[in-house]
């Protein structure tokens, strides 16, 4: 059985979330700008849903995040620069959406990033050197560039 609907608007505002995993459901709407309000969020796993719209810039302020899996949704627009450079993230999965723009040079600040999945989006522009360094030591998927 899959869950459906929108995420509650107060989800990050009043609860001290450390992990949010709503993967493999039929949630729709946008990612809430308040998810990081508590400052405790470590894992955001929303793959395989129907989420759409742009990623809120506030997601780039979630300094505790270690895993971000937004793949296989309907997100669009540019990924906020802060999201590219989250310092503790080791997994950033943005594959199979409709993201556009370029990979921000702030990705150089993502010192722990070892798994990066960007396939099947509308990204353009050069691939920053920091991404090339990731691909030499770990796993990167950027097909469909």
From TrEMBL:
Subcellular location: Membrane
A molecular function (GO) term: receptor serine/threonine kinase binding
Alphabetized UniProt keyword annotations: Glycoprotein, Leucine-rich repeat, Membrane, Repeat, Signal
Pfam families: LRR_1 (PF00560)
Highest rank taxon of the organism: Eukaryota
Coiled-coil stretches: none
Gene3D superfamilies per UniProt: Ribonuclease Inhibitor
InterPro entries named in the record: Leu-rich_rpt (IPR001611), LRR_dom_sf (IPR032675), Plant_LRR-RLKs (IPR050647)
GO cellular-component term (any): membrane
Designated name of the protein: Uncharacterized protein
Gene source species: Crotalaria pallida (Smooth rattlebox)
């Amino acid at each position: 059985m899959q869950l459906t609907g929108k995420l509650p608007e107060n989800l990050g505002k009043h609860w001290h979330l450390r992990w949010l995993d709503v993967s493999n459901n039929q949630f729709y709407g946008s990612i809430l700008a308040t998810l990081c309000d508590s400052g405790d969020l470590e894992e955001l796993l929303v793959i395989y849903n129907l989420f759409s719209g742009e990623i809120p810039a506030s997601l780039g302020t979630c300094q505790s995040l270690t895993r971000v899996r937004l793949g296989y949704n309907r997100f669009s627009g540019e990924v906020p620069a802060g999201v590219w450079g989250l310092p503790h993230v080791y997994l950033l999965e943005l594959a199979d959406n409709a993201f556009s723009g370029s990979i921000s040079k702030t990705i150089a600040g993502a010192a722990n990033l070892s798994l990066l999945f960007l396939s099947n989006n509308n990204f353009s522009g050069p691939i920053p050197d920091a991404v090339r360094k990731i691909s030499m030591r770990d796993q990167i998927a950027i097909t469909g560039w």
